[in-house]
Specification:
Blueprint (H helix, E strand, L loop, with lengths): L1 H29 L6 E2 L2 E2 L6 H4 L1 H16 L2 H8 L2 H19 L5 H7 L5 H20 L6 H4 L6 H21 L1 H16 L3 H10 L1 H16 L2 H19 L3 H4 L4 H14 L2 H5 L3 H5 L3 H31 L1 H11 L2 H19 L19 E5 L4 E5 H4 L1
Antiparallel strand pairs: 1-2, 3-4
Helix pairs in contact: 1-20, 3-19, 4-18, 5-18, 7-15, 9-10, 9-12, 9-13, 10-12
Amino acid sequence: MEIAFLILFMVIIGSVIGGVTNSLAIKMLFRPYKALYIFGKRVPFTPGLIPKRRDELAVQLGRMVVDHLLTYDVFMKRFQSELFKEKLTLLVEKKIAEWLTSDQSIYQLAEKMSIEQLDDKLENQMVHFVQKKINGWLHEDNRIKDLLPSQIDRDYYIGKVVEMIIEKGMTYFQSSEGEEKLGQLVDDFFADKGKIAAMVQMFIGNSNLVDRIQPEIIKFLNSQGTKDMLQSFLYKEWERVQEQPLGELVPNLSPIRKEVTEFVVRKIDLKEILYRPVRDLTSSFYEEAVEKGTVTVIRTINQMIIHQAEKLIQGLKIDQMVTEQVEAFELEELEEMVLSIAKKRTKNDYIPRCLIRRPHRFRSSDDRFLYLRNTNKNTFIRMKDIV
């Protein structure tokens, strides 16, 4: 039994000596904090090792963090992790939803961001933009076909124009105005033919001629040949006009450009849009805006991370940040922190592990064990073997 207590006593004494030695070694690394001088001569081994080489230690720590801890691969691995993507997506969705359901107007949100007179600025920008687009669109050298959509159905529209011409012509010649005009044409025709033609007109009668000519004109307009003739004529004119520069058809385009610009700006009520609550503007497409907006923002962020992450990380100058923080750290606090870690380590590894626990109950009193545990392994020792 004496051997057991001797072993326990030696372990306790060793633990105490180890703890005191660790604490003393740590203090010797830090103290004295400043160099000591006697008669103008610096006392050897002052200041302590860490205060003396503090700048070098700070630089080395900064390089170690950048080269081995917070590397580009570490950042990219974290950025590309599913957890980061999930949290980023939730954050973006939340922010977009908050913005789209805001009771404030775009103008008020702009004022919060210190953007003043947004309506005037946007209106000037819009006028400039519209003018630029219309000037490019209504340029003198542009051909007509360059201004028209490529998918326009030429046959459909020309057919509609032909039907309209024939319908309007038939309606006109069947009206009283058309009959009157036919009578004037007949009078003018015979008046130019001399006395013989006038005598023929007198015998036949002007009204009889109009009654005979009018059905023939209606029949002519309603015939398939007339439709084909008009379509052929319009096709040829359409092809010719399309190849003409706009400046040839309209010599002076400046007034047209100005009127079109004023019309577009007038139709776009910019101030009404800017002063309405955002939720009113986005209510009809809220879900789609949140979904597509989130996808767009996430895609933009991912592209920025892929192409700019290395530059951003380098721009942060993490090594310099670590160096500055280490240099600014108080030596007393650093010493206290290291000592607390050492004390905790000593307490956990030595003192509790050297306590004699209550013997376990076994079937025989001779089989009781003394449980000693060191830092490496657990050992059961028979008390009767020790004694």
